[in-house]
Amino acid sequence: MQKFYVCWRYLPVGIVPAKLWHVMRLIMILLCVGLVSAYGKTYSQNAPLNVRVNNAPLPELFRQIQAQSNWRIFYKDELVRGEKNITLHLRGKRLVEVLDKALDGTSLGYTIVGTQVAIVPKEEQPVRPLKLAREDSLLTVKGRVYDTHEPPVALPGVTIAVKGTSRGTTSDADGYFTIQAPKNATLVFSLVGYIATEYNVLRSNTGLSIALNEKVSALDEVVVVGITEQQRKHIASSVASLNVKSAMSGKPITTISQSLQGGVTGLQVSQSSGLPGGDAATIKIRGITSLNGSNPLVLVDGIPMDMNFIDPLTVESVTVLKDAAAASIYGARAASGVILVTTKRGTPGRVAVTYDGYYGVQSPTNMPSLVDAPQYMRMYNEALANSGKTPLYSEDDIQQTIAGTDPVKYPNTDWQKVIVNKQAPITSHSVGVSGGNSLARFALNANYQYQDGMTPLTSSRKYNIRANTSVSLAKNFQINMDLLAIKRNILLPNRTLGHDGTRLLEDVFRVPPTILPKYPWKDGSTTDIYGRYVDIVNPLAYAEKGGRFVNEYGQSSINLQPKWEVIPGLNLRGQFSYRLNSDLMGSLRDNYNFFDYYTGQLLQTWTQQRSYTQARTTYYYIAANADYTLDLKDHHFFLMAGYSQEEKNTSSSTAGTYLYINSLLSSYAKLNYSYQDRYLLELTGRMDASSKFAKGHKYGFFPSVALGWNISKEKFMSSVKAVSNMKLRASYGQLGNESDVDLYQYQTTINSGTGLETTYGNPDLSWETVNMADVGLDIGLFNNKLEIVVDYYNKLTRDIILRPPLSYTGGFEDKVPVNAGKLRNTGWEASVNYNGNIGKNISVSFRPGVTYNKNEIVSLLSGPYVSATTIQQEGGPYGGIFGYKTAGLLQESDFDKDGKPLIPVLPGAKPGDIKYLDISGNKIIDGSDQTLIGNPIARLNYFANFRVAYKNFDLEFLLQGTGKSDVVLAGMLALPMDNSKDGGVPTRFYADNYWTPQRTNAMFPRLNTLPTNNKLSSDFWFQNGAYLRVKYIQLGYNTQADWLKRVGIRGLRVYMNAQNPLTFSKLKLTDPESQGDQWTYGIMKAFIAGINVQL
């Protein structure tokens, strides 16, 4: 295509701004097209061609064709660059015969419209020409073609072809077109540099709008980096984007946070619960930032909010800002990293309607089986004997229970079968409508989600309505207006205090199988009488008569974002958002009397309960900024400055009423500079003022700098064909933290009743600051089919707010908050992204990633800080486990023949109890032997996503796991025979592995109803928390069959999905991810079928 290259390929691109260059290129294409059309009268599709090509690239063939005919061949250089040279000798052949022969065995195809030939990927080549209908039966289609920018720009020179025919046209200088086509024909819209799209002709249409998405390379990809967008090639900081299509589209996830697990390196994502309405994952970016909390800042369309209330199907992009240079634009809110979520907006084109729905059933990932009644009775007798007490159950009782002849008097209850629902339904239905034109675009979405629980009276319903609109009030002025309404209803059994609605699960593990759930009615009575066991309430009674706990949460918000392009490159932007949250909680129960089954005696009365608590929160956010982009030959500048203000007011009414007010004022500035896209510089500064600090300490300034070197742009890399991208990055910056700091800590509070001080404030309290250095390398190989990203970081948090135990002269000893701690996180992360094809019909993608993070407490004022089971000390990890070191279990060899211990032991210790180590050397086991014994946080996190597609089928799965961490087994799972409230029913696994004189190499201590010595915090109860989990496996089928299009369906997808189907772990009694005890509502696995319909 020699003549076409003269038009545009060899122009000096580097001296022309990028957007202007695109416009110039389109003008040149139109000019070439216009010149070609002058020869249309002499054109003949059947004119014979003679070609002779010897081991030459495809462009040589195209040159020969154009030299002897009026054909004009268009293609993108990078599209044909990877194809092998060809040898071809043909005489007197038609064009289609020449191209078919030349492109056979390549990944290329072609389309023909008039005298123009476009070389395209083979999958975009239309089928062979069909016979057109008679002219008088053709339908007329008129419309306009746009790009997908905001505001949209009309596209000239777009080829509009009737698929499978030679009929076609092009859009004019303003993007308008007119074409005639048969009913049910398909129009293909294509333009060099854009992704082709299709439209099915069902009727005449004189107002059609079509939007084309631009094809961009990895470097030209536009990424949301905070307040504005930038091309990836100009970014020098550590920024990662989630593959939304892979992580969310067509996936049955209930919250966005779940999709981040296994999507981005540097994130530690764990789901601690599967409770309906409480199954959101916790997220840490590059470790624990502060001892006061480490939650990242999450912004949805620029506004801080909980992303888990958003319907995942409305998400357009998710960007993670990981280092200080990337996050510093958000200053005080960004100390723990930033997650930016943008939602989908409408694009010009026909109104598109989508439906996404799924239905499935859930069951616990780990529900250990419990012993039956006879085995429980024998084990309980053994525990009583070991405690020096008389057995409770006679041998006759045990035999009667085994026989099962009188299940009322000798019950054998499986409480898990009575209470736990292992086929809890989950379903979601989402409908989206989008479309618009150059004046206005819209995207509407409505979602309903229902999730049932595995315990009675446990469920969650969520309703979500979003309306995003964009209006172009003038050519250079537009405004986005987004409306959001959310309602969530959570229902739980009214046995929730302190355990997030899971006390019912605790009862399942605590009530013995020797207790009958409910006695049969007798003598015509219709009164329900439930079995009882000391102070433990029958879980069935609670499920049926205990009432319910309700939580009704509502949220409504409006978000306005005007944008004015004052002159080319200079934009003024504004943002105003207002949000209202309402949270109502209530406990409801009716009167009920409990009787003894045999005597009829009244045992207990549950009185009616009606209690409510309501909280109301209003939030507003105001921001304004200006940004200017300037390209001067080799120099690219981007400057931005702005201001923001936000305030949150929270009030609640319970027994009393309180009102909390928190506000934050901020100003910021940013400069991005690049020279020849090779050398990059980012400078950012932000000033924040917070109401959480006293006068003189309210303000904090947080600067950052980042440098980048696009090595692949250097001349010495031009000969290294395999490397398509190589960038070296380095950054250093400072961030502030106040988001996890309590209000009014700078003030001393006084009890209104006594007039005495209750807490001391510190007026000198100030910002926690995070200093972070980052070095990274981005590599793209083989035209970016293989991408590798590696980062190393060092993050030091200073001035952490602590409450050391110091004495003050206020009449009592109080813990006064001071800036007196340091915490360091160091680590590295690496990810690989491969996308490729195997043959013509198979595509493969593989995305593994690994993150290593080590945290260390550098300094603590008056440390260490010790609780019953945790310790914060200098040189140790955050949340270190505090207790005794052990050496297994005591054996008979540790005692003399009179039973006296030969080594230091606790008073009353016997063979089968835990053997504690005397690390202090004082010959006794006491508090001086306690020390830091473990780390509950895994340093290593990894994932791997694999997807393969064959024609219309695709198979995808995600692996996710962590390295070693110390998981503490506690409560009933550790000491089931404990007569205190920590005891319960042994698991079958425990029954096979506790110590007896005949089983001395056991995992668990001897049975004991008073296991005081074995309840101490120690490493004996440690289990390795490392695991590998298959997060999901999904098999899908996509079709865009013609018969579907004839009934108005543009696309159809059906899929089957298994979530958390397999887990590989050494933990037998708990889920390795939630790592809880008997009352933890663990993670659920689910088997789901879903469908996606596009109209």
Automatic annotation (TrEMBL):
It comes from the Bacteria. One of its GO terms (biological process) is iron ion transport. Gene3D superfamilies: Carboxypeptidase-like, regulatory domain, TonB-dependent receptor, beta-barrel domain, TonB-dependent receptor, plug domain. It is found in: Cell outer membrane. One of its GO terms (cellular component) is cell outer membrane. Coiled coil: none annotated. The chain crosses the membrane at residues 20-40. It is a multi-pass membrane protein. Keywords: Cell outer membrane, Ion transport, Iron, Iron transport, Membrane, Receptor, TonB box, Transmembrane, Transmembrane beta strand, Transmembrane helix, Transport. Belongs to the TonB-dependent receptor family. This is TonB-dependent receptor.
